[in-house]
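Support request, priority: normal
Reporter: lab tech (M.K.)
Component: structure prediction queue

Hi team, I submitted a job for Polyprenyl synthetase family protein from Ideonella lacteola yesterday, and the status page still shows it as pending. I've pasted the exact input below so you can check whether something in the sequence is tripping the parser. The sequence length should be 295 residues. Please let me know if I need to resubmit or if it's stuck on your end.
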Amino acid sequence: MTPDEFDDWARAELLAVESALDSLVPADPPAGLGDAMRYAVLDGGKRLRPLLVLAACEAVDGASFAAMRAAVAVELIHAYSLVHDDMPCMDDDALRRGKPTVHVKYGEAQAMLAGDAMQALAFEVLTPEQGIAPALQARLVGLLARAAGHEGMAGGQAIDLASVGHRLDEVALRDMHRRKTGALLQASVLMGAACGGVAPAAWDALMDYGAAIGLAFQVVDDILDVTQASETLGKTAGKDLENNKPTYVTVLGMDAARHHACELRQQAHAALQRSGLARTQRLAWLADKVVDRHH
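Reply from support: The job had stalled in the queue. We restarted it manually and it finished. Here are the results:
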């Protein structure tokens, strides 16, 4: 697969994801809530998680309707988490995806409700009356719920908030980010894979792939927070250092953090080779994009 072929695929899938989000995130909830929801999730972001869902579904020759619903659902969970993370009671940030954060534009109460509504909508999207078999609905809901809840993203955020000003070793830092960032990225891969038939060995390999890129994403995020400007990132640069938060750069050092990101990329590629699946080229490219990105 050439870079142009990958870019053409990604562009087409991103348009499809954007169209699905536009149709599934309503504009008519009362008292302006729909406006806040749509502001939070439409027209912004890398959409890495939906692309992972769709690439994993392709790798297992899965059901495209279910995969697109899963792609929308995982992006709704990601977007809701950003809305809540940016609020003054958490990270207190004013910039996200190059525009004012939801609580800055709509107020804290509306931002909280928008996040709540998007979280609920994610599970509604996964449970349509037709088009996805009940057993697959249940499996997708379970994967997403575990990744978003106390075992995953919410638990990781709790550790993150409790770690401000404290020294963490690499083991503790990895556990925090495995939950906070990695769990939802790994779940994206597994939700796509669940849309098709997967042998246990291939499922385990995709789990390892998802774990590797999930951690790599956070390592690179920590590097970019130090090396890139806010205009490039689309969010406030240097916040972790300013807030005295432990990161891979502060724990390992810059050179070791970069080396670790490359190691994780290699682990991701090795897992794909071990999977025995024939159509993993897009997943391999996405692993490269995670490590090589500049924002």
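The first strand starts at residue 95 and ends at 96. The CA atoms of residues 79 and 246 lie 23 Å apart. Let us know if anything else looks off. Ticket resolved.
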